[in-house]
Design goal:
It is a single chain. By secondary structure, the protein is α+β, with helices and mostly antiparallel strands. About 25% of the residues are buried. A hairpin with a 2-residue loop joins β6 and β7. Strands 2-4-5-7-6 form a five-stranded mixed beta sheet. Helix content is about 50%, strand content about 15%. The protein is elongated and about 65 Å long.
Length: about 220
């Protein structure tokens, strides 16, 4: 089958939406940062803050608290879990959807199961798969491994990370034009919402993204 990549229009729309949100957040935060820096500078120079200064600081802290609450509410709405029992292959199939990629290997058992929200976890896995397909030289794939640290491994034979691994997990970080820089953030959020973990590794000649489950989460077989 023909290799299907992310639609450019979809990537641009996503980048525009994230850019708009980032601009508004930056605007809301800048006033508070300016006030805090000014207050810190005065205190460093030995000057006291008067009642008006303290009132302004209190107002900014209240506004930041409201902003934090709005962001937490948005996060809860996007990752409100509806858990069901499923197997690794079902989650991978959901992540792939109607997409099919040449030279993309899939290895996953249908004999084990675990509880998750397949839509949320599948979306996180989908982001890792997109990254692997775009980064590969010739081959990429996804597999599920059992053992002491079971989980999904999405791999590719590309050149590896262009930024440090820790930086790659930071939201907004990307080396691709028009990309929103949120793929790994979505995957990390999906993992954390389940109590799972996300790790990135370079195992030459492969780059691996591991979505790890606690071994206690696995059971056999999947109920029918």
């Amino acid at each position: 089958m023909a290799d299907r990549s992310i639609e450019p229009a979809s990537s641009l729309e996503r980048r525009a939406a994230i850019g708009a949100l980032a601009a508004e957040l930056g605007h809301d935060l800048q006033g508070a940062l300016n006030l805090f820096r000014s207050s810190l500078d005065r205190l460093t120079r030995g000057q006291a803050l008067d009642e008006e200064d303290l009132s302004l600081l209190g107002e900014e802290l209240e506004r930041l608290g409201q902003l934090s609450g709005r962001l937490r509410g948005l996060a809860r709405a996007s990752t409100s879990l509806q858990k069901v029992v499923c197997n690794p292959r079902q989650v991978i199939d959901l992540a792939l959807g109607h997409d099919s990629f040449e030279a993309f290997a899939v290895e996953a058992s249908e004999e084990i199961s675990f509880a998750c929200d397949p839509e949320v976890l599948g979306q996180g896995l989908k982001e890792l798969i997109k990254n692997a397909v775009e980064a590969r030289k010739a081959h990429a794939g996804v597999r599920f491994e059992q053992g002491a640290t079971p989980g999904f491994c999405v791999w590719d034979d590309g050149a590896g990370f262009e930024v440090p691994v820790a930086a790659a997990l930071a939201w907004g970080v990307t080396t691709r034009p028009s990309a929103a820089g949120l793929g790994l953030t979505v995957a990390l959020r999906a993992a954390r919402a389940h109590g799972f973990n996300l790790e990135l590794k370079r195992v030459p000649p492969y780059t691996e993204a591991w979505l790890l489950l606690p071994a206690r989460e696995l059971s056999q077989p999947v109920p029918t």
